[in-house]
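## Example pair
The file below holds two records. Each record gives the amino-acid sequence first, followed by its structure token line.
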Amino acid sequence: MEEEQVSHRHREVRAWLEKVFGGADIPQYEINEHTIDILYGLMQRNQERDRDTQIIIDDFNQKAEEYHAEAVRLSSILQSVGLSPASLSQSGNVSLRTLANTALTLGIKDATTSSYLLQMSELAKSDMETEQARHSEQRLSEQLFTKTKAALIKCNSLKKALSALEDQVEFQQPQLEKKTKESGFLLSKSKQYKNNLKQLQNQLQQNGFEANTTHQSLLKLAEELEELNGRLAPLKSKLDSYHNLPPDLALAKTKIAEANLQLAKLEAELAKSIDMMHM
């Protein structure tokens, strides 16, 4: 079916080309579906334009016949009153030709006053619409020009900012590369230290490390020992004072016994603190 359609179109295209070239040699062309479709479309558009042109030609011929008939009518009227184009003055002939040319320019069918006035009114209306459209286009052009100018200013500002950023990047690039290398080195060291810390913590746990042997714990015990020594000093001073007891032996023995008990208690606490420091 498609081959038949292509063949039919080819015949139409061939006949149209022969008509166009009028017996002259037709240029060679490839006979395929794509080429035939292009030539067929060109033929249709050409034929449509020929029909439109023929319609305009027929309209001009009709107007020419109408003008000729009107000229004959006017000539007969002029002759009936004893006037003819030959009897008109030079200015009259000029005016007559001007009226005829104006009628042709305006495209009116007759030279009556009403036809001139109607066509002039249409021209005035069209001129007003054209002027309004021109003003509208002018306002739009001004708005577009303003926006374009603002856009160009922004574009130049962006170009300057981009150039400054590029210069800054070029200036800071070595520093950034150096900091990147340093950052990588620090990250590597951080991981290494974390691994070492984890290994040391495991090693401490394996060696029986206890929390009370840390530096903080030892400092706290030292503070407690210093406090106990401070409390023990006045007691020793008090005990030394008992060597000068009064002659009452029983009372002196009681005081000495109490002092010895307090001293023994403090020495026991001191020994306990010292033992904890060595654990």
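Second record, same layout:
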Amino acid sequence: MALQRKLRALGYPNAETFKPTDEGPFRNLVVSLEDTKIRFYAEDERAALRNTENRKWSTAFVKYLEDMECPHMAHADSKDLQSRLIVVDWLLGRAIALEYSDDAAVYNQAQTQQTATSLGVDANSDTATALIKELATLLKLPVVEDVDLQWRGVTSTLLERFTPAAVTYAIQHPQEKHERMSLATLPLGFDTGDVTLNTAAKILRLLHIHELRDLQTSVNQMLAGVQDLVIRDKLVN
């Protein structure tokens, strides 16, 4: 369950047994997230939240969400499961984002080291740096001085372009070539009057199209799975 995964990611105790509708654990979670991860209020402003036995705690909690401009205020004072899940998920998402931003360099370095270790090389060596830049050039990626960024860019590109299906298709169609379209010649459909803004708009449009394609692939896979289940059910019955 997504809720438990996020709790585990934050190192929260009893993540597996946590239930949003259990008032005591719910209030304790809110206090813990604010004290250790979110830290939106100053230390002396958290007294009302920390007093979890106070009958006016819900009022303090609603104000807390309002102060943070939570987009789910319609669910703030509700105790039903769906509302609690929505609010808790938002708080956990905020906590995880802040946790990452606090130690972004550490996490990024750890990811780079993990990738390099799996390849059996020292990611920080001059040899590895030269090779990763050469690979970026072969993949037609921009070469940058930030080695961590270069590793992540090359890794992401390899995972996206060299899927088993893509490799199989390339082997079966060795003569097929794909024309690369220049961003400068890509039609936008409107003009902002500024070259930089036009370029940014083209990039955003391409990213949006890419996301739509990924979504369509996921939907197709889901439909195929449902159809498979229906066929199996008919065969069994």
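Notes on the second record: Residues 65 and 71 are 9 Å apart (CA to CA). The chain has a mean pLDDT of 80.
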